[in-house]
């Protein structure tokens, strides 16, 4: 997890910089980066980082599911979460413009994710 968060603070050609100088990434970009770091881990490394080893499922290989430090915390924007603010409610079926969202629970990249900014879904991806 620390490696991932440090990776968020790297500025293109300028090297390492402060969080205020880091380019803003969308929740989906941050989730993809977190997932990419988690899948590099073997089972022992996963356990060391308090991750859960997920067996192969639906054509996907076994992989490490790293927890986030703020898993399940209610949020309205990605800036309130270490990785991403997501909703389980598909906005197409929501009667309200605003959705209930929570900070991403694990690095797993499975199913549908509805990324939230300002209480509204701004990106969606299903895989």
Distance between the amino and carboxyl termini: 23 Å
Report the sheet-strand fraction: 15-25%
Q: pLDDT below 50 for ≥5 consecutive residues: which ranges?
A: 1-22
| Proportion of helical residues | 10-25%
Q: What's the arrangement of strands in the largest beta sheet?
A: 5-7-6-8-9
Instruction: Please summarize the sheet with the most strands.
Output: 5 strands, antiparallel
* Average pLDDT, all residues: 80
How many DSSP helices? 3
Structural class: alpha+beta
Reading the helices and strands in chain order gives HEEHHEEEEEEE
As a whole number of angstroms, the C-alpha radius of gyration is 15 Å
Q: Per the principal axes of the C-alpha atoms, what is the gross shape?
A: globular
State the total count of DSSP E strands. 9
Short recap of the structure:
With 127 residues, the chain is an alpha+beta fold.
In words, what does this structure look like?
The chain is α+β, with helices and mostly antiparallel strands and 127 residues long. The chain has one domain (2-126). It has three helices and nine strands. The chain has a five-stranded antiparallel beta sheet with strand order 5-7-6-8-9, with no helix packed on it. It has a two-stranded antiparallel ribbon with strand order 1-2. A hairpin with a 2-residue loop joins strand 8 and strand 9. Mean pLDDT is 80; it is low at 1-22.
